[in-house]
Task: inverse folding
């Protein structure tokens, strides 16, 4: 196949694959035998167990295929930055975020089966834990998240982000008990309100386009037009975008849905919500960020001040909630607030190295958070506590009752709080270094401001370190209760792979010819900073 | 109709929408809130019609579908969400929509109280409205009838922003879920008015893009109403917000 055609085919397949998986999962669900014995009694009928297994295979293979296609895209995109197809624009930044989605989706898909098993054992009627419904929603959610980074038109981007909200809401409320439904309700109400601001922001940007010609909301066409946009409306647009998409990204103070949503969602979904969904909203902010900086031509001062403040505020707000005693999944959710704050802080600094660090942190956080949610899910399943229940006091002595899982949890936790030699330490260090450099090059007044920001950053991160270590200590040490099921070593293999990746990315950023992640992140940072593959 | 009169008329109707929003926020029953919301939707449809008659604004006309749909659909959908019951097969679902509003009226007459006293609520609403007008005037330089520094009608923009703020306030000031949804729908009206009055020029493609997004937004909001709210009501046994506080955030 010729070189120009391959990326286009990959992009098309990236959208078709999850859609096909959705249809196939639904079809498989239809084939389940019903009736007295519920045994298959025809060539086109299968048992519930067979259906479930088939659906799990379909979902896993789709996620694997999607990841493979994304890896194929990395090479051509870094050499030829654009793949344009109808309303789609796929550059290095797009591919980077699609990579994020597909890596986490692949690992999450491996734990759908174990989650449904545990749910079926503990919870009520099978009807409430319908595997077909889960797989259909999961694949649709996967589709919308893959679509978000590939769309060119900023109005369609909004629609795509809104669709991710729909499917994630239905997944959060999957258990259909009061807690899950309440979390889903809170999530949809808060994010729907926020997303209105994002649409208004998009509207203001549309109004900033000068009259005459053929105005379009395609990002690729707005970038060359940026200097001609009305600066007042561009500023207003960015402000509304930050509030709107910031709500979806979990920025404080719009974050109240975060701990409930992530806490009550099925744990494979929590991994996706925390690792990827927040980043899809961040992706939207980044696209507007590029346009705004090019339009205002103020060295990024306007966007920088907003993002720095937003990032620091999120970081500071997260700290006390992580320090206090809370259900572990909610603690992990507050860590998302922390890390989104760190990423936003990095973007706010605005230098090449800071943007590189921020984007790298997005990936590192996604991987580490997935590791934590999926590992903790094994603990929940083995401890026999009602998977939606409150009884956190039972989660003690994990190192004794489930030694391998305990070790994974301990190491994952250390990675999450930024301990060397793990990946998050590397990206946090890059961001901190960029902040110090920026403080050093500024005049005395701003240097003081940056200095204070750095002190606040380091203090918050330190407190958060202490907080998580306390939570983990409480969970890992002490004598476990009776009745804890043995851990399944087979189920731990993917988590080990994830841990190895988390460790490896702390030691180096891969850059062999076929998987040049380093170049991909650099290209992405360049696109964010100046809207194209080459900065002036 | 004279083109000089049109902007004045739409401004008047915009102010009327604002008055409806204030009355929705201060209503004491859900039934009143819904009726006033429907009135607001109708006025919005008229504004779209009038705006479409302005020079080079005909492309805005398809947008009228949104407020008209909300006018007809909001009562049955909210009715069904209010009446406790699990999801039903399609035939019964549509039949249940027809009778749901009637069945829900008893509940609607009992719900709709505010968390704050009427005087404090009114004061807050006034402050929010004033803030919206100040922001709008500072953005547009205070020009009317599309002659502002960016061609935007100040009154309409101010009303749109006021609807946003009042809708948000309603969501946080009421004690039940249905009122919260109505607050969200008022916020949508603000967005809708902004979209109608802000989009300038004859670009049909751009206008239709935003129309599509508004339709998607309304469709999704209503879908979630059908998908989540009845189950939540069934599990908790109530539409009061106090009964939905198992999670602490």
Result:
């Amino acid at each position: 196949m010729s070189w120009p055609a391959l990326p286009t085919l990959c992009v098309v397949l990236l959208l078709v694959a999850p859609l096909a998986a959705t249809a196939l999962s639904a079809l498989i669900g239809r084939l389940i035998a019903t009736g007295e014995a519920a045994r298959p009694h025809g060539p086109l009928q299968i048992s519930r167990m067979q259906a479930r297994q088939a659906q799990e295979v379909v979902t896993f293979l789709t996620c694997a295929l999607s990841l493979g296609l994304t890896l194929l895209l990395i090479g051509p995109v870094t050499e030829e930055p654009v793949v344009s197809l109808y309303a789609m624009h796929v550059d290095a930044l797009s591919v980077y975020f699609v990579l994020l989605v597909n890596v986490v989706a692949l690992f999450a898909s491996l734990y759908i089966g174990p989650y449904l098993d545990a749910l079926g054992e503990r919870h009520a009627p099978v009807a409430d834990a319908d595997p077909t419904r889960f797989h259909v929603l999961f694949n649709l959610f996967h589709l919308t998240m893959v679509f978000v980074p590939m769309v060119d038109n900023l109005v369609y981007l909004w629609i795509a982000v809104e669709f991710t909200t729909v499917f994630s809401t239905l997944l959060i409320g999957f258990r259909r008990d009061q807690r899950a439904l309440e979390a889903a309700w809170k999530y949809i109400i808060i994010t729907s309100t926020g997303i209105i601001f994002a649409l208004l922001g998009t509207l203001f940007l549309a109004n900033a386009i000068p009259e005459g010609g053929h105005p379009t909301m395609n990002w690729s066409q707005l970038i060359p037009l940026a200097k001609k946009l009305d600066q007042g409306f561009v500023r207003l647009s960015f402000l509304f975008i930050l509030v709107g998409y910031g709500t979806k990204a979990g920025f404080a103070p719009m974050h109240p849905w975060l701990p409930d949503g992530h806490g009550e969602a099925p744990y494979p979904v929590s991994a996706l919500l925390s690792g990827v969904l927040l980043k899809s909203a961040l992706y939207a902010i980044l696209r507007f960020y590029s346009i705004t900086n090019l339009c205002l031509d103020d060295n990024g001062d306007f966007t920088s001040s907003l993002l720095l403040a937003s990032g620091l505020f999120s970081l500071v707000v997260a700290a006390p909630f992580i320090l206090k005693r809370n259900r572990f999944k909610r603690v992990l959710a507050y860590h998302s607030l922390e890390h989104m704050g760190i990423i936003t802080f990095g973007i706010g600094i605005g230098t090449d190295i800071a943007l590189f660090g921020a984007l790298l942190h997005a990936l590192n956080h996604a991987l580490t958070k997935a590791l934590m949610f999926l590992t903790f899910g094994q603990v929940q399943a083995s401890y026999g506590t009602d998977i939606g229940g409150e009884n956190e006091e039972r989660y003690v002595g994990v190192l004794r009752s489930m030694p391998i899982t305990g070790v994974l949890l301990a190491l994952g936790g250390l990675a999450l709080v930024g301990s060397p030699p793990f990946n998050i330490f590397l990206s946090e260090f890059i961001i901190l270094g960029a902040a110090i450099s920026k403080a050093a090059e500024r005049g005395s007044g701003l240097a003081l401001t940056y200095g204070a920001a750095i002190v606040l950053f380091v203090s918050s991160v330190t407190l958060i370190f202490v907080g998580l270590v306390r939570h983990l200590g409480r969970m890992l040490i002490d004598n476990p209760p009776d009745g804890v099921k043995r851990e399944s070593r087979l189920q731990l293999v993917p988590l080990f792979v994830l841990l190895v990746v988390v460790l490896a990315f702390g030691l180096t950023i891969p850059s062999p010819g076929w998987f040049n992640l380093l170049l991909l992140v650099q290209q992405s940072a360049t696109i964010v900073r100046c809207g194209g593959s080459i900065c002036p | 109709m004279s083109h000089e009169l049109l902007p004045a008329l739409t401004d008047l109707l915009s102010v009327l929408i604002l008055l409806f929003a204030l009355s929705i926020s201060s209503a004491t029953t859900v039934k009143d809130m819904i009726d006033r919301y429907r009135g607001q939707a109708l006025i919005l449809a008229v504004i779209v019609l009038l705006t479409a008659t302005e020079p080079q604004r005909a492309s805005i006309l398809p947008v009228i579908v949104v407020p008209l749909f909300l006018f007809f659909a909001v009562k049955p959908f909210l009715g069904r969400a209010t009446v406790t019951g699990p999801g039903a097969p399609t035939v019964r679902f549509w039949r249940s929509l027809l009778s749901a509003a009637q069945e829900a009226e008893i509940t609607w007459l009992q719900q709709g109280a505010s968390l704050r006293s009427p005087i404090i609520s009114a004061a807050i609403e006034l402050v929010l409205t004033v803030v919206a007008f100040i922001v709008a005037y500072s953005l547009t330089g205070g020009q009317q009838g599309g002659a502002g520094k960016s061609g935007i009608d100040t009154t309409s923009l101010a009303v749109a922003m006021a609807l946003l703020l009042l809708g948000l306030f309603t969501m946080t000031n009421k004690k039940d879920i249905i009122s919260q949804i109505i607050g969200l729908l008022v916020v949508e009206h603000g967005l809708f008015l902004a979209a109608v009055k802000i989009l300038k020029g004859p670009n049909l493609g751009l206008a239709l893009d935003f129309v599509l997004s508004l339709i998607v937004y309304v469709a999704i909001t209503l879908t979630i109403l059908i998908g989540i709210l009845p189950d939540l009501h069934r599990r908790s046994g109530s539409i009061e917000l106090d009964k939905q506080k198992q999670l602490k955030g």
User: Anything to note?
Assistant: The first helix of chain B runs from residue 5 to 26. Chain B touches chain A through 46 residues (CB under 8 Å). The radius of gyration of chain B is 19 Å. The mean pLDDT of chain B is 80.
